[in-house]
Amino acid sequence: xxxxxxxxxxxxxxxxxxxxxxxxxxxxxxxxxxxxxxxxxxxxxxxxxxxxxxxxxxxxxxxxxxxxxxxxxxxxxxxxxxxxxxxxxxxxxxxxxxxxxxxxxxxxxxxxxxxxxxxxxxxxxxxxxxxxxxxxxxxxxxxxxxxxxxxxxxxxxxxxxxxxxxxxxxxxxxxxxxxxxxxxxxxxxxxxxxxxxxxxxxxxxxxxxxxxxxxxxxxxxxxxxxxxxxxxxxxxxxxxxxxx
Amino acid sequence: xxxxxxxxxxxxxxxxxxxxxxxxxxxxxxxxxxxxxxxxxxxxxxxxxxxxxxxxxxxxxxxxxxxxxxxxxxxxxxxxxxxxxxxxxxxxxxxxxxxxxxxxxxxxxxxxxxxxxxxxxxxxxxxxxxxxxxxxxxxxxxxxxxxxxxxxxxxxxxxxxxxxxxxxxxxxxxxxxxxxxxxxxxxxxxxxxxxxxxxxxxxxxxxxxxxxxxxxxxxxxxxxxxxxxxxxxxxxxxxxxxxxxxxxxxxxxxx
Lengths: 244, 255
Hints:
The structure holds 2 protein chains of 2 kinds. Helices cover about 80% and strands about 0% of the residues of chain A. Chain A is mostly helical. Chain B has helices at about 45-50, 85, 95-105, 110-120, 140-150, 170-185, 195-200, 230-235, 235-250, and strands at about 5-15, 20-30, 35-40, 60-65, 70, 75-80, 155-160, 190, 205-210, 215-220. Helix content of chain B is about 35%, strand content about 25%.
């Protein structure tokens, strides 16, 4: 039972909100009672609209994570392994990194139009940086003793990367991807809320604009549950893989 | 030209981070020598070993192997590091760690298990092939490093204070095993230690270094009978004389 203790606080809040809604006979285009939100959510679950939106959002988030994280991983290994490359790219990295990913929406719109490609492009940009920076630090921080071993045994650069550098940096690279996964989901929903007519973010904005606060709140809770579930899955995988 | 030595330090100087670590080192090592290098910390013992291993390049002069200048690590020179905790891959098993050396040499996959089993038996780690380094004692981890070096089938074995972190009993056992392994393989050994007794016990030649900057202060031949024995060799008056002799000329004048 101890594991469920953390649910007490949100349940009390929901109960209070429900009580308040019932006490005030809530009739609103901006708010809905938890019970109404639950009913709307159950309908959306039953008719498959949430499932479709979830799949679209996850496809965008994971597509962007794979693309941006993949490039970030490779670039991070290069910058972490080579001091020269790191110095060469330092200015470019520090100049580009602070650009907010959502500021790329207009460019992505012009280039790709609505749809998966524009959203994945923006999510990749957002996921690229944390993976790049953390992988670079992880690779640069590998114990000098292991690098000596790689040199003494005369491992070629590719073998050194695959057999020594990546396994040694893997726990920290995993943390980078965990961080980037959260960012990817956030950015994907943001792009959908602001521009892209698909996924959970668009579902939410559609519910809001068609004056269905109950459905909008249901989407909001669902996005929260999804983010929590994603983090839970990655954290347990991390614990199982690295026992740290 | 007369016959060239296997290893030659030719007027080698080394400056690291603005500090002169070694100055004007001249040294010839013949094939089959067991050379021990002793000296106080900061005398450049490890730097000499890293130069010989091709992990460093000298600021001046050159280090040669069989007449050729050493500019990078060579397959016929194996290096055993001081800190086993940082020299073994914790995510690979005992067999996997040995395999790394064979993979680096492009030994065909089907030949690897036999060679791995062979070197593990030589160092007494048969039966531990599937363990991870973290499951082994310090002594066994150093045996594993020896096994990985042997897998390379090197002509020269460089050992950097390999037994410094081990307890006295384990250290003596490993000293005798290294002696018998070396006797069997005929390898030339360059053994760095700060333990004078260890140097005299193992080597047929002991080089004493003095620090600031590191330089060769003495070169002593050790003519104790082989095979050496932890009791009788150490009780030999010649052993005591050599130890005393080395102690006198490498002790830090400032201490």
